[in-house]
Amino acid sequence: MAVRSLWAGRLRVQRLLASTAAWESKGWPLPFSTATQRTAGEDCRSEDPPEELGPSLAERTLRVKDLTLRYQRAVADCENIRRRTQRCVEDAKIFGIQSFCKDLVEVADILEKTTECISEESEPENQKLTLEKVFRGLLLLEAKLKSVFAKHGLEKLTPIGDKYDPREHELICHVPAGVGVQPGTVALVRQDGYKLHVRTIRLARVEVAVESQRRL
């Protein structure tokens, strides 16, 4: 085994020497020589692209200033929008009923003219005429109020005969169900309720019919 190993090593050395002699005879530099390594290193350095330099300090400073300015402008715009929105909300609270108040002014005019018909200076023989004027004025006043209410979505609730609904009715008491009156329905309205569009703003005060044995 030892002889065989020595013989194999000798063959490898001979092959290496032969290879080296062939390279030198042709004038080629040896693969592992210092010159070859230096040339390869120089070629690699020449082919590699130069490293790109990052932005300079001045460029970074300008970019930071630009971003800061944009941020400040965005904050200022948001604040202006918030103030305008708040002002619109406040105006809506103050002037939201402007149209309703304008219509009520006409009602006030009718009421004022009606009250002018009654004075301490009215003579007894003119009392009948005065009462007729007052009555006509009150009728006109009621018609005007109904017109104003309808215009603004204010609906009067007079639920006689309707089924009791706690969302629209305030129960005052129970009464025996009479002829033609179904138990659980409104038999009498003590005070009318009002609904603004779909929202009840005042419950109708009612008496509800029940069977006699269930009377409270």
From TrEMBL:
Keywords: Acetylation, Chaperone, Mitochondrion, Transit peptide. The keyword Protein biosynthesis does not apply. InterPro entries: GrpE, GrpE_CC, GrpE_head. GO terms for biological process: protein folding; protein import into mitochondrial matrix. It holds the Pfam family GrpE. It comes from Macaca nemestrina (Pig-tailed macaque). Probable component of the PAM complex at least composed of a mitochondrial HSP70 protein, GRPEL1 or GRPEL2, TIMM44, TIMM16/PAM16 and TIMM14/DNAJC19. This is GrpE protein homolog 2, mitochondrial. It comes from the Eukaryota. One of its GO terms (cellular component) is PAM complex, Tim23 associated import motor. CDD domains: GrpE. Belongs to the GrpE family. One of its GO terms (molecular function) is unfolded protein binding. It is found in: Mitochondrion matrix. Essential component of the PAM complex, a complex required for the translocation of transit peptide-containing proteins from the inner membrane into the mitochondrial matrix in an ATP-dependent manner. Seems to control the nucleotide-dependent binding of mitochondrial HSP70 to substrate proteins. Stimulates ATPase activity of mt-HSP70. May also serve to modulate the interconversion of oligomeric (inactive) and monomeric (active) forms of mt-HSP70.
